[in-house]
Structures are given as C-alpha cells and as structure tokens.
Amino acid sequence: MRLPKFSYRVPKKISDAVKMIADAGVDAMFVAGGTDLYPNMKRRQQTPKTVITVTRLRELHEIQGDAKSGMVIGSSVSLTEICEHPVINRDYPFVADAARLISTPILRNMGTIGGNLLLDTRCNYYDQNYEWRKGINFCMKKDGEICWVAPSSPKCWAVQSSDLVPLMVAIGAKVKLVSEAGERTLDAAALSSDDGICYLNKRPDELLTEIELPPRNGMRAVYKKLRRRGSFDFPVLGVAAALNIAEDGIVRDAKLILGGVAPAPIEVREAEQALIGEKLDQERINAAAEACYLKARPLDNTDYVMGWRKQMARPFVRRALEDLGRQLQQEGR
Q1: Location of each CATH 3.30.465.10 domain in the chain
Q2: Residue 35 CA to its chain's centroid (Å)
Q3: What is the pLDDT of residues 80-139, one digit of tens each?
Q4: pLDDT per residue over 241-298, tens digit each?
Q5: Residue 332 has pLDDT above 70, yes or no
Q6: Rounded to an integer, what distance in angstroms lies between the CA atom of residue 49 and that of residue 194?
Q7: What share of the chain is helix, strand, coil (3-state, %, to 5)?
Q8: Angle at the Cα of 264 from the Cα atoms of 263 and 270, rounded to 5 degrees
Q9: What fold characterizes domain 221-330?
Q10: Which residue ranges does the chain devote to CATH 3.30.390.50?
C-alpha cells in the first residue's frame, strides 16, 4: 500500500501551524509521529491533501512541573520520553507504566502522547485496505452508509483504542487546544465523544498543544490492558482506576474508567460509589468489579469474542484495585 499524494508543510511556530491549517481548510490535517495517520492514509481511510507536521514546534516538546504543582507535557513528547522521564516516573509512575503498554519500542520512539490521545477509533470492518472495504460496500465510518457491527444502528460503533485516554480521564487531566480563534482547555473526559466517526470534541483546525496533569494530592492510579499479544496490539479492554485514600484508609474519591469497549471511555459511577466512603477491602473491590462487568457492553468490532471481553471486565478491575491496595499495604496503611 502506498501513500496518496499530499503537500507537506513544516511550521516552526504554533501560530504558523494554526494559520496553515486555517488556510488549507478541511482537506488538511496535523501529524506528529504519524503512526496512526500514515497507515490510515495508505488504506485511504483518511486522505488529506495537506499534511502539517508539528514535530518542529519546540514548545510541544517541553515537560515541566512535578507532583506538587502538577505537570505540563507538550503534545509532541514521544511515548519513549514519557516512559523514561525521571520526574514522570517518580511523580506520575502510572502514566509511564501505561505508556509502556503502547505498541512496540520502535513505534513508541515515533508516537507521541498527543497522538495517542487523538487516536482514531478502530473496527474490524474499518481497519482494512481499500479493496477489502469496497468488497463489503464500505461502512458508515468511511464511504458507506451502514455500520456492519450493528446494521440497524444510526451510529458508528468503532471503538476507542487509546491506552492513555482512560487513564487521563481517571486522573482528571486537561488538554489545551489552540486555533486561530484562540485557546481553550478541556477536561480529558470532555475530549472524547461517544460516536465512532465524530469521536473527538475537537475542531479540525485546532491543535492539541499540551496535556496538564493535576497535582497528585495523594492520588494513586493504575491502568490495566487486555490484548492478545504482550506487545504491539491495541487494547480490547482497558481499565483505569484512580483513588484518593485518607490516612484512616477510607476511600475519599474514586474514578473507574473502561476503555476499548465503546466509542468513548466509560465512567462507571456505580463502581465508584461502591468504593467511596469505605475501606478498600475485597468485598468493596468485588462490588466495583461487578458494577463494571454490568456496564461493559462490547460489540463484535475488534479482537476476541465480545462476550468474553465483557467477562474480563471483572478480573481486570479486581487486578487494578488490588494493585492499589498493595501500594497501601507497602505504605503500612
């Protein structure tokens, strides 16, 4: 498969980048590492006439802050840098751990944190070459009119497949978007939209410039990932858990987010309520796991049988919360 022809623009300032895309219009797209966009272009899933690289924008490669003040990470920081950065590993180890689960070392050298947060939704009927998709008369997400996962549905069910999105939602991170119209900051939860086609609440002319991690303030978090192979594969289930636990062991706040089972990450409020106000014991963990199992409703749009993927919500939530429980025990709490 070959790339289609396109113009390649190289801005050196953020202001130049957003002006370029405003001038080029809907036929232009930003690119950083290109590990998602370029394969999509080869399959003719996305066919921008103009590609604007953001890799030369120095501001997007900066990492600042710590656990006390919060951290700001530029959107073009590579996943390898996230994995290896000493302050991230010290103050936000769960972010580095989640980044290590993404793809392979070579692709992590290319892929960026911003690119992973904006990752295209995936589906067995969409992630095929052009000829294969043409053979089934295409799908709703690209060139067709029907969702082959749920033919009677008016909505595309391509699935959210980023590893960092569920975690960023769980820890309450924010993202900054910049365009010629100005800047705006969104909660990570507000960045995603529950539709496989329009899966981002981001305009095409907006550039994701930075990710803001909140101060730790005692927060603990973890991310667990289900996939067929130990590396490379996208998640078919992701579980992100974040807890704030008082000195007496009572859970003051909890976030439980499921990824890989719907077009957007799912916050399971019933599971959170099963934990808040209680100690993190096995009974509470099992109750939260059961609530996540009931909420998870994957469809037949990615690897593994969907019923089994649903069942795996229980053990993966248990493992995530048990990991956090072991952290407390190590601290003597």
Answers
A1: 58-118+159-213
A2: 14
A3: 999 999 999 999 999 999 999 999 999 999 999 999 999 999 999 999 999 999 999 999
A4: 999 999 899 999 999 999 999 999 999 999 999 999 999 999 999 999 999 999 999 9
A5: no
A6: 27
A7: 35, 25, 40
A8: 120
A9: Enolase-like; domain 1 (3.30.390)
A10: 221-330
**Which residues are within 8 A (CB) of 55 and not within 5 positions of it... i.e. 6 or more apart?**
32, 33, 76
What is the residue-wise DSSP string for 172-194?
Answer: T-EEEEEETTEEEEEEHHHHB-S
Pairing of strands 50-53, 28-31: parallel
Q: Which amino acid is at 328?
A: L
Neighbours of 281 (CB within 10 A): 11
Q: What is the CATH number of domain 58-118+159-213?
A: 3.30.465.10
Terminal CA-CA length for the chain: 56
> Phi-psi region for residue 149, left (φ > 0), alpha (ψ -120 to 50) or beta?
alpha
Pairing of strands 237-245, 251-259: antiparallel
DSSP state string for 40-83: HHHTTS---SEEEE-TT-GGGG-EEEETTTEEEEETT-BHHHHH
Claim: this prediction has a pTM higher than 0.85: yes
